[in-house]
Amino acid sequence: MPTVPDDTSHDASPSHRLRERLAPLLSLASTRGDRRLPSERDMMARLQTTRITLREALNELEAEGCVYRENRRGWFVSPPRLRYDLLACLPFHEMVRSQQRSARTLLLSAEEVIAPVTVARRLGLAEGERVYRICRARLVDERRVLYVEHHLLPRCFPAILEFDLARESLTELYRREYGIRVGRVSYELGTCVLSSDAASALNAVRGSPAQRITRINHDQNGRAIDCDDEYWRHDAIELTLSAAPQGV
Amino acid sequence: MPTVPDDTSHDASPSHRLRERLAPLLSLASTRGDRRLPSERDMMARLQTTRITLREALNELEAEGCVYRENRRGWFVSPPRLRYDLLACLPFHEMVRSQQRSARTLLLSAEEVIAPVTVARRLGLAEGERVYRICRARLVDERRVLYVEHHLLPRCFPAILEFDLARESLTELYRREYGIRVGRVSYELGTCVLSSDAASALNAVRGSPAQRITRINHDQNGRAIDCDDEYWRHDAIELTLSAAPQGV
DNA sequence: AACCTTCTTTGGTCTATACCAGAAAGCTGG
DNA sequence: CCAGCTTTCTGGTATAGACCAAAGAAGGTT
């Protein structure tokens, strides 16, 4: 959202004042096509401050989700967040398009590998068993916002790597080609930072704040069939969910 | 100053090496009862670096959830995350105790106020209508990890402010005193930073990364009865959730 | 023993400067 | 017109030093 963070507090610290003076630059940048902010040295000069102080203010705005940066390319104003309904289970492209945004997927790798221990545990595999791993980067309005690592059970999806995985939705493939429908999903959510793999896939800086969404899909019989680890730029999404309580 | 060129065989960046040299301090601190790290100046001297560089490394570790800080008190090693099942809907104290941790609640304020617009919209109120607002800080193992603002419809819960809100669970009160049970919950999740209110309640620095969990409770007829905004220290929880997909 | 004041430590913030490596832009030759 | 090289710009990272305000400890007073 190009909205300037609410600054109504009486706090008059220099850094706070710096944020205020930064605000016009943000709203200016948000009108540009590429949402780009001026260079750090430029802003530093305009705002009469040091680069360290400026970067501290920018880091704060980044944590709030107002701005983000691309590795060695500069700072940008964050677009509005995408709403992600955890239980709707819409394929990525549908979800994005239903919100009048454009979606694109890049296939980074698709291969058979020995299952990492954490994946093996999730899928109920023994040590050393093999899985398909599919790594993809996904873009919303041409901004790289999501890095996903998918791990699938080969016995459920033989030869799935042959399909056009950059264009096809996996859940769609499951149903059309394998007659498998997801009966139950389990999520694990938490904040984290981007690993170097994820960071380079997203043109981000290693260590940027991120939202992790780990999802395990089960078939109609409750057996795990695949799992994926999603790493979102933290300012790119807002999660929603609505259900009846279970524990009662 | 004549900076000595680093050794020829460095495969990691200086900041990476700094993290490695920081590791022993972390494991040392985690054995202390209070999990406290040495002072910044102390660490800086031990690791032969600058305060700015050191703080950058610590900020990174903070973003990863390895360490956290308390305002003007210092740095600490983060305890293991609490698991928070969104659909179990356990009262806080039960959830915490079921994981062999200790829980405590501080009542910060409980009063009748004019509903903020966002709350009014969630609860289906007209502008200017009144609600009860309850603010609490919650501790796990005596660490302040959660700041909650609760907003309730007065017509559903007359005189609820009379109860001992620091000790009683709200959902428990709903059921016992008002015969109301939650029929449906809606969540909105996202990363954010601590507001100054939240920060001071948690002894945190304004602007620390946080996990927001907004929850709207509905009664058996689907009418909203209350909502709460939870702000967690982001390293304190891991969210889980398991359900059947709806959208299919 | 409870309270208040003083002093020291410590984190929070800021200034100023420097060098390196990747990205972008510009140039050049085929 | 394009591929490939070179230069420039820019962010990433680091050093050194400084002041302030809050927290905590120490000590004195009631």
Polypeptide structure, described:
Chains A, B: Residues 12-80 form the HTH gntR-type domain. Chains A, B: One of its GO terms (biological process) is negative regulation of DNA-templated transcription. Chains A, B: One of its GO terms (molecular function) is DNA binding. The structure is a homodimer of 248-residue chains. Chain A is of the alpha+beta class and 248 residues long. Chain A is built from 7 helices and 10 strands. Chain A has a 6-stranded antiparallel sheet with strand order 4-5-6-9-8-7. In chain A, helix 1 (14-31) packs across helix 3 (51-64). At the A-B interface, helix 3, strand 7 and strand 10 of A face helix 3, strand 7 and strand 10 of B. Strand 10 (237-243) of chain A pairs antiparallel with strand 7 (184-193) of chain B.
Concise synopsis of the structure shown:
Two copies of one chain form a homodimer. The first copy, chain A, is α+β, with helices and mostly antiparallel strands.
Give the % helix of chain A.
25-40%
Shape field of chain A:
elongated
Q: Strand count, sense and closure of the main sheet of chain A? A: 6 strands, antiparallel
Strand order of the largest sheet of chain A: 4-5-6-9-8-7
Please tally the β strands of chain A and state the result. Answer: 10
Q: What is the name of the CATH topology of the largest domain in chain A?
A: Chorismate lyase
The quaternary structure here is: homodimer
Beta-strand fraction estimate of chain A: 25-35%
Question: What top-tier CATH class of the largest domain in chain A fits best?
Answer: Alpha Beta
Keywords (chains A, B): DNA-binding, Transcription, Transcription regulation
Protein name (chains A, B): UTRA domain-containing protein
Domain HTH gntR-type (chains A, B): 12-80
GO molecular function, one term (chains A, B): DNA-binding transcription factor activity
